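Hypothesis: this fold can be encoded by more than one sequence.
Test: take the structure tokens below, design a sequence, compare later.
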């Protein structure tokens, strides 16, 4: 889906702020302290987000009129709290879970009916191994082969600007690393370093960037941040895993 690719492109651009400080030395594993963090990515303007879908829907209506077919169903209405993605990060201190949900508007080819669909990807890190699965919008689930945990590409030193937002401690990328696309990015502050997820990437609590192909601003923000609160190891599992 074009939006999904575009959003991932912005995510990669925002992530470059952290990767620019890459170094040769190995870094410590993700923080041993338990945590439960939820973030969401949303379009700054729902109207701008829906612009492409309105154009597609209008084009479909014109084609159906030329073919003397009934008009397509009305364009789906987004809820006021619509988000493009929601990410959950769990750590029990020894195991980690990363759950990413992506939400998209899709249009059926047959009658141009629009609806909100979702894709779910999950990663579990335990005992030095990475386990993953992905559920596509059609419901098919693909389970990946376990892989060894690799070293991260950055030591997190690019996050030099300390901030406190809503009582949450963050470390943000320095101003000289910001671009027109990756305008701002902040990771969770773990004291001596940024807090990392199970695959050793900084956990991004706040970012602001632009999807160039859509001329759309997207914002990542924290929903819930609990660091130090115990997390049951039983919760560190892929959905449906026995």
């Amino acid at each position: 889906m074009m939006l999904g690719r575009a959003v991932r492109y912005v995510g990669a651009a925002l992530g470059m702020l952290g990767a620019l400080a890459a170094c040769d030395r190995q870094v410590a594993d993700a923080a041993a302290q338990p945590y439960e963090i939820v973030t969401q990515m949303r379009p700054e303007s729902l109207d701008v987000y829906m612009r492409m879908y309105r154009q597609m829907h209008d084009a479909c209506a014109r084609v159906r009129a030329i073919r003397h077919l009934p008009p397509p169903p009305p364009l789906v209405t987004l809820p006021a709290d619509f988000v493009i993605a929601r990410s959950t990060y769990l750590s029990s201190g020894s195991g980690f879970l990363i759950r990413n949900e992506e939400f998209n508007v899709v249009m059926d080819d047959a009658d141009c009916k629009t609806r909100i669909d979702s894709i779910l990807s999950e990663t579990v890190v335990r005992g030095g191994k990475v386990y993953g699965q992905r559920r596509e919008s059609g419901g098919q689930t693909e389970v990946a082969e376990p892989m060894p945990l690799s070293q991260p590409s950055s030591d997190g030193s690019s996050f030099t600007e300390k901030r406190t937002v809503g009582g949450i401690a963050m470390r943000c990328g320095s101003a000289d690393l910001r671009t027109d696309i990756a305008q701002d990015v902040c990771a969770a502050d773990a004291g001596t370093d940024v807090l990392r997820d199970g695959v050793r990437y900084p956990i991004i609590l706040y970012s602001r960037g632009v999807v160039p192909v859509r001329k759309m601003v997207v914002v990542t923000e924290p929903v819930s941040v609990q660091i130090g609160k115990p997390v049951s190891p039983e919760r560190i599992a892929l959905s449906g895993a026995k």
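Residues 1-31 have pLDDT under 50 and may be disordered. Residues 56 and 206 are 31 Å apart (CA to CA).
Hypothesis status: open.
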